[in-house]
Amino acid sequence: xxxxxxxxxxxxxxxxxxxxxxxxxxxxxxxxxxxxxxxxxxxxxxxxxxxxxxxxxxxxxxxxxxxxxxxxxxxxxxxxxxxxxxxxxxxxxxxxxxxxxxxxxxxxxxxxxxxxxxxxxxxxxxxxxxxxxxxxxxxxxxxxxxxxxxxxxxxxxxxxxxxxxxxxxxxxxxxxxxxxxxxxxxxxxxxxxxxxxxxxxxxxxxxxxxxxxxxxxxxxxxxxxxxxxxxxxxxxxxxxxxxxxxxxxxxxxxxxxxxxxxxxxxxxx
Length: 269
Prior knowledge:
This is Probable zinc transporter ZupT. The chain has nine helices and two strands, in the order ααααββααααα. It has 269 residues and is an all-alpha fold. The chain has one domain (3-9, 37-267). α2 runs parallel beside α6 (154-183), α4 (85-105) crosses α8 and α5 packs parallel to α7 (186-213). The longest helix is centred in the first third of the chain and has 31 residues, at 52-82.
């Protein structure tokens, strides 16, 4: 482990007092902070709206690379060390199905694809909150992965939190920009970006609490979070990053995220 990261892991462990719930909460605060800071990039939208789509696509590609590596090295492999492949595979599939069901039932809006959900809700839900719902759907698996990884080991939780928090910076813009475009309110855009980041804190803390209540759930929780993240990457993030003609840059972002997460996992291993 890198000396700097080892010190950080030690500090988190000391502050949390060995409690995985507190550790998950503390680690997820980084993701919350980075999402909130990224949301402030919307300030540039008022004067530089032309190429923000590039930043969004690169950010989604970057997020996808991080989530793919984290799903395997920090979630699936630890789950397989704890439990048999049957439980892990079933939990992985259930995680993907759960996010799919949420994605189908809850109406939400994508910046490029537009509205998704029951047609009857189209006029009843404001566009800004549709966007917020979409981002929360994306952020929940990320928060779950932090909570599950932190319950397994502080070092794994730190690797996942650092990687996800880093990619949450451009994701903050992906939250605030559509809200600003839909509502015209800068304050609402910033508020929703902060709320979306906070959803990761909630998800991480709940998952860690559930695992603490029943330690036997750890392997299932790790695999469930992995399935949810892989589904988000395959069904939402990567396709969305390739819809505006920025496929090459989005692919570069994907590889950058992949390499960074792989390095973090190795450095903290």
